[in-house]
Amino acid sequence: MTIKLNQKAPDFSLKDQEGKIHRLSDYRGKWVLIYFYPKDFTPGCTLEACNIRNNFSEFTKLGIVVIGISSDSIDSHKKFAQKYNLPFILLSDEDREIARKYGAIKQKKIMGLNIEGTSRISFLIDPEGKIVKIYDKVIPINHAQQVLDDLSDLIK
Fold first, then answer.
1. CB neighbourhood size of 50 (10 A)
2. Is 51 a domain residue?
3. In CA terms, which of 11, 17, 40, 85 is 20 to 30 Å from 76?
4. Rounded Cα distance, 145 and 152, in Å
5. 83 falls within a domain
6. Phi/psi at 65 (5° precision)
7. Does residue 1 carry a pLDDT above 70?
8. How many domains does the chain fold into?
């Protein structure tokens, strides 16, 4: 599936690191950042999550809900969130159904093999539920600041 700007973001129902169910529709009326990432505890994913954590007070000031999604288990997310003190929602999409809906599943070449995996891609969703920004070339170290800058421009 190909996601386009200004289209309604696909809804979902997934469990977080505590086993609580979250639906995108629960956050109607708020700005939402959904970021897909490959795997808990890997260097790039840890860097991205910690960078968002370090800027989380700014996200909170702007009223943005941050949701990370990967195919890791609820238990893995719980350990990841605890180890790195992550104050935001991590959702488990073990069958990658939601990642597929958002076009976050790509073919990757790993050690010469073609493997299907989750791409590092993010979506900024406005309070009406429309996708207003797609980040398909995420750089983990500066992604949080990039989103904050974009959101500051959008809400002016």
1. 16
2. yes
3. 11
4. 10
5. yes
6. -90, 130
7. no
8. 1
Answer whether residue 120 is part of any domain. yes
Domain that holds residue 143: 28-154
What is the Cα–Cα distance from 66 to 50, expressed in whole angstroms?
13
The CATH number of residue 35's host domain is 3.40.30.10
Residues with a catalytic annotation lie at: 45
Please enumerate in sequence order all residues whose Cβ is within 8 A of that of 82, keeping only pairs 6 or more positions apart, or say none: none
H, E, C per residue of the chain: CCCCCCCECCCCEEEECCCCEEEHHHHCCCEEEEEECCCCCCHHHHHHHHHHHHCHHHHHHCCEEEEEEECCCHHHHHHHHHHCCCCCEEEECCCCHHHHHCCCEEEEEECCEEEEEECCEEEEECCCCEEEEEECCCCCCCHHHHHHHHHHHHCC
Q: Is there a domain that residue 47 lies in?
A: yes
The CA distance from 125 to 32, in Å, is 5
pTM of the shown model: 0.94
* pLDDT confidence of residue 156: 67
**C-alpha–C-alpha distance, residues 140 and 97, integer Å:** 24
pLDDT in tens, 117-135: 898 999 999 999 999 999 9
CA distance linking residue 132 with residue 61, whole number of Å: 20
